[in-house]
Amino acid sequence: MQHIIGYMRRAIQDYKMILPGDKVAVGLSGGKDSVALLAGLERLKRHVGMDFELVAITLDPCFGGVNTDYSPIEAFCENLGIEYILKRTDIGHIVFDIRNEPNPCSLCARMRRGLLHDTMKEAGCNKLALGHHYDDAVETFVMNLFHEARIGCFSPVTYMSRKDITVIRPLVLAPEREIRRAVANAQFPVVKSRCLVDGATSREDTKNWLVSMEKDMPGITKRLFGAMKRSGIDGW
Predict the structure, then answer these.
(1) Long-range contacts of 150-159 (CB under 8 A, 24+ apart)
(2) How far apart are the first and last CA of the chain?
(3) What is the mean pLDDT of the chain?
(4) Per-residue pLDDT at 147
(5) Between 17 and 194, the higher pLDDT residue
(6) How far apart are CA 67 and CA 104, in angstroms?
(7) Dmax of the chain from CA atoms?
(8) Handedness of CA 136, 138, 140, 143 (dihedral sign)
(9) Contact 64, 153 (CB under 8 A)
(10) pLDDT grade, residue 199 (50/70/90)?
(11) Closest CA to 171 of 182, 160, 186
């Protein structure tokens, strides 16, 4: 995890993500990225002496009407001494059964985001940390370009004035392959998504396209990320 913590520390410092006295909610889906994010923030708080509080929040979409077993994640938070909030929701039922969305990811993301914002405010948090990493940023940039004909990406730091919260992405400089390796080496618990379209999305297609392009044009992902940073788009 040491390399991942290094990426996180640099991102937090470069983009001034966390200030003394912040209460940070971590969106903990149970996947490798959010688990690494929580563990990294806890170690930065404990070993580097950064002055902030942590709360972990999991929203269970209850896909197929079945509660997901998050007990390994709950135990993980308990071992770290971090408050853990688990909310069961009807998101899966609404997206797939009631609305029968042709593009379920968009509605699911909006619903999860809104509930996550409300839950973190109830917990007294002023910042929300999400597990988007380096590869997510490049994929989002490419998807916006090819699917929406616009140049843009999510920001490392986003202030949402309507709800008075700040969204931060401390893993944004960390490559996915390094996160995957760190989580496996540390033997952190991971809960696999039960989403009906997991692995069959536009993002997955974009990820595979970038992998293919890397074979023909080695370093293209790094160059895209560099171009995005140099352009200064969306707070980069």
Answers:
(1) 151/231, 151/233, 152/233, 152/234, 153/228, 153/233, 153/234, 153/236, 154/234, 155/234, 155/235, 155/236, 156/11, 156/14, 156/15, 156/17, 156/235, 156/236, 157/15, 157/16, 157/17, 157/235, 158/235
(2) 25
(3) 91
(4) 87
(5) 17
(6) 19
(7) 49
(8) negative
(9) no
(10) low
(11) 182
Provide the token pair at 42: 């806890």
Two structure tokens written together for 24: 């940070």
* Structural Rg of the chain based on CA atoms: 17
Altogether, the residues listed in the chain come to a count of 236
Segment 44-66 shows an average pLDDT of 88
What gap in Å lies between CA 25 and CA 123, rounded to an integer?
8
The separation between CA 96 and the C-alpha centre of its own chain, rounded to angstroms, equals 23
Tokens representing 28 are 């903990």
* Cα 17 from Cα 46, distance rounded (Å): 17
Contact 44, 12 (CB under 8 A): yes
Say if strands 157-160 and 165-168 run parallel, antiparallel, or are unpaired.
Answer: antiparallel
Structure tokens at 136: 């997510």
**What are the tokens at 198?**
């997991």
**CA atoms of 44 and 6, how far apart (whole Å):** 10
